[in-house]
Amino acid sequence: MSDLGIIENGGVLILDGKITAVGPSHEVTKGINEKEITVIDAAGKAVIPGFVDSHTHFVFGGYRPDEFAWRLRGDSYMDIMNRGGGIANSVGATRKASLDELLVVGTRRLDSMLSFGVTTVEGKSGYGLDRKTELKQLEAMARLNKSHALDIAPTFLGAHAVPTEFKGKTDEFVDHVMEILPEVKEKGLAEFCDIFCEENVFSVDQSRRLLVRAKELGLGVKIHADEIVQLGGTELAAELGAVSADHLLQASEQGIRDLAASGTVATLLPGTAFSLKEDYAQGRSMIDHGCAVALATDFNPGSCFSNSIPLIYALACLYMKLSPEEALTALTINGAAAVGRADTIGSIDVGKQGDLVILEYPSYRFIPYHVGVNTVETVIKTGKIVFSKKL
Q: Which candidate, 254, 251, 250, 338, places its Cα nearest to that of 292?
């Protein structure tokens, strides 16, 4: 994760949306008539792969600012959830929101992500907890994927919480979610299935039951694992060969070793720990054990209402002991692996999509150094400029 393969005075050639040459500029431009191509001069600036935000919940209705104030006075995440706040609060607002309303707010949020250099984003459902609204969220992502410059990797998170109508009947609710799975797959609305494996939410056994069925249907699986308590979700992710295990604040040493052996990506979300004032995931230990670590924002209306890539980058370096090089890898190629797309995005390699970010400064190290401030000047998606501070 520390080897970035930096090319000084480098150049990148993109044709028909794909990278066709990478190397020293004088070699890349050899034999090319510059009058026939668009030349972008990035002299004195760093060019990096587009960021991959591999864990977000960006399609939702309503907001929860009151809960932020409650947390400041000492109320825990689970306390708020138990009184009808948290996920349940967003469920009510998202059920009421129309598809058109979700498209409007979704577009606005994607525009913001793009300005931070994100070129691919994972989006989860999970604020419906019923067939109609879960499908509505996924349909919104499908339409946004067609209309917006960002690529969206959709995830079905029907088991995000137990809705009030199933209170005390968690097993029955898991059955209900499993009944929606075939329709999600048949309509091509999701690439992954996720579940919140947590104490007082969904047990390890319930999570295994849902995810095994999702795998049988051909969906990749992800797990919200060991965020609040050490339950064993990390070990389950490794057991199932999950694409990623996310959060991992309370992951055990055995779970970390299992992740490293399985190849499951450890997706860490420092913005959530920051917002909840919790201890951070053991990013340094995970890397030292051989885990592939990704970083993501966890952008959502409750526990992390932020899509700031520079903030995530700085938190990872300052409090999770990642080097600037490791953090860049975690937000690019490892983020791509966390959404099953490492073969097409996440690095500046021949044959991959021409998704690039030009920074205002000469080094990627300015990203965490300029704490929380956006250093992105230009974003290029499949060879086309889709955001520029100059425009």
A: 338
| HEC per residue, 191-226 | CEEEEEEECCCECHHHHHHHHHHHHHCCCEEEEEEC
State the pLDDT at residue 77: 73
Q: 243: which residues sit within 8 A by CB, 6+ positions away?
A: 192, 220, 221, 222, 264, 265, 337, 338, 339, 340
What 8-state DSSP symbol labels residue 379? E
The pTM for the full model equals 0.97
The answer to whether the beta carbons of residues 349 and 19 sit under 8 Å apart is: yes
Q: Which amino acid is at 313?
A: Y
Residue keyed to tokens 């793009």: 114
End-to-end CA distance of the chain: 34
**Alpha-carbon dihedral sign for residues 236, 241, 247, 250:** positive
Bridge-based pairing state of the strands 192-197 and 244-247: unpaired
- Are the CB atoms for 231 and 197 separated by under 8 Å? yes
pLDDT value, residue 346: 98
Mean pLDDT in runs of 10 for the chain (391 residues)? 96 97 94 89 97 98 91 83 82 97 98 98 98 98 98 98 95 98 98 97 98 98 97 98 98 97 98 95 98 98 96 98 98 98 98 98 98 97 95 66
Sign of CA dihedral 208, 212, 215, 217: negative
Alpha helices, H only, the chain:
25-28, 65-72, 77-82, 87-96, 99-115, 131-147, 170-186, 204-216, 233-240, 253-262, 270-276, 283-288, 309-319, 324-331, 333-338, 366-369
Distance CA 159, CA 50 (A): 30
Cβ atoms of 194 and 237 within 8 Å: the answer is no
Give 263-315 as a DSSP string.
T-EEEE-HHHHHHHT-PPP-HHHHHHTT--EEE-----SSS-----HHHHHHH
262 three-state secondary structure: helix
DSSP annotation of 75: -
DSSP code of 252? Answer: -
